Amino acid sequence: MHRRGVGAGAIAKKKLAEAKYKERGTVLAEDQIVQMSKQIDTFKSHLEEFASKHKQEIRKNSQFRVQFQEMCATIGVDPLASGKGFWSEMLGVGDFYYELGVQIIEVCLALKHRNGGLITLDELHQRVLKGRGKYAQDVSQDDLVRAIKKLKAMGNGFGMIPVGGSYLVQSVPAELNMDHTVVLQLAEKKGYVTVSEIKDNLKWERERSCHVLDHLLKEGLAWLDAQAAGEPQYWLPALFSELSSRDITPEEANQMTP
Amino acid sequence: MSFEWPWQYNFPPFFTLQPNVDTRQKQLAAWCSLALAYCRHHKLYTLDVMESQESPVFNNKKIERKLSTESIQVVFEELRKKGNLDWLDKNKSRCLVMWRRPEEWGKLIYQWVSKFGMINSVFTLYELTNGDDTEGEEFHGLEEWMLLRSLQALQTEGKAEIISMDDGKGVKFF
């Protein structure tokens, strides 16, 4: 009688099968994978159909755009991923973010003279909107963040530092490490920070605190106020709210360095 | 029209001479602009260093910050280097502020002269700064010492010649 699963050969086979399963862990059976691919493809084509139907909405409405982007993200599609292809050609989404990126760079360059290359997302948003005029497409902070991420990926020296619920956008490749970032976050509340505040809040030694502040001075991100009561204060132009409401004067424009 | 203060004026560190060289350059440039703009607005032609300390320009009472005497001197030295300031005494306690440089005034005056086809005419200094014809021109009311410097600048360019007349000086334009 033919008995299955018994015998040296069968045992070896079984061991091999077990080993294979162990090795591949959570890998699904082949047919399941094929199933899922088909589903994703379907999903993708639905999304593409949706996109072409709602092209205008996506272009004009920033709220809509956020949700659309999030949908894309869930299936791992990045409409901004390449300059060519369906997304950018169909929607001009790529162009939209590319142009936005250029605008962002322009604003940052124009103000670098004042703030050393650090600007709040709020101020950036205000100025970008101003530059676009009344009849241009709406731009949200989410749009800015995406465009900046793109710029960062392209190696333009851009970075974003989370600060007080929003961001500071860094447009100059100043070397800012964790210590600097944390001090910037501390300075966000009042627009300035002191050695004592750093020591009290972050529990650092005096030397470490001074080192960070010196670096911020050196990078042109902070200015020293030696007339403050008690001890010197280190102010950041980027966080000086009165500054953000001022237009760029012709003199400043002349002093712009690329 | 009231004077418009630049953003730096309310920024406390603006009144501390910055240790970072690049930042200090920007700071001094801004101070020079501010000082000149203020003098121009109030038609100030001379400044006394001691008095300046208490002037609103260098002393912002609202934020309780003021530029120290040493720092004021640094700003004045910058202005001097740029040709906008001349010391009246060796001790550097008083100075002439030229919020428009002599060359710039000269250009304005010459433009006016040629606009009205007055090249080759002779003017007394008084006519230029106080005559009815120049009413409304920016150089109307210009102080004589400034006017002379401006005409001297034109003279160097060969566009004018200062001449002595019976009751004072005059100028011929070419």
Automatic annotation (TrEMBL), chain A:
| Keyword vocabulary terms for this entry | Coiled coil, Cytoplasm, Protein transport, Transport
Q: What the protein does?
A: Component of the endosomal sorting complex required for transport II (ESCRT-II), which is required for multivesicular body (MVB) formation and sorting of endosomal cargo proteins into MVBs.
Q: Which SUPFAM superfamilies match?
A: Winged helix' DNA-binding domain (SSF46785)
Which organism's genome codes for this protein? Merluccius polli
User: Which Gene Ontology cellular component terms are annotated?
Assistant: ESCRT II complex
Complexes and interactors: Component of the endosomal sorting complex required for transport II (ESCRT-II).
> Which PANTHER family is this protein grouped with?
EAP30 SUBUNIT OF ELL COMPLEX (PTHR12806), VACUOLAR-SORTING PROTEIN SNF8 (PTHR12806:SF0)
Name of the protein in question: Vacuolar-sorting protein SNF8
Q: What is its main location?
A: cytoplasm
According to its UniProt record, which protein family does this protein belong to? Belongs to the SNF8 family.
> Localized where?
Cytoplasm
Q: Does the keyword Cytoplasm apply?
A: yes
Calcium in keyword set: no
Which top-rank group of organisms is this from? Answer: Eukaryota
Record GO biological process: protein transport to vacuole involved in ubiquitin-dependent protein catabolic process via the multivesicular body sorting pathway
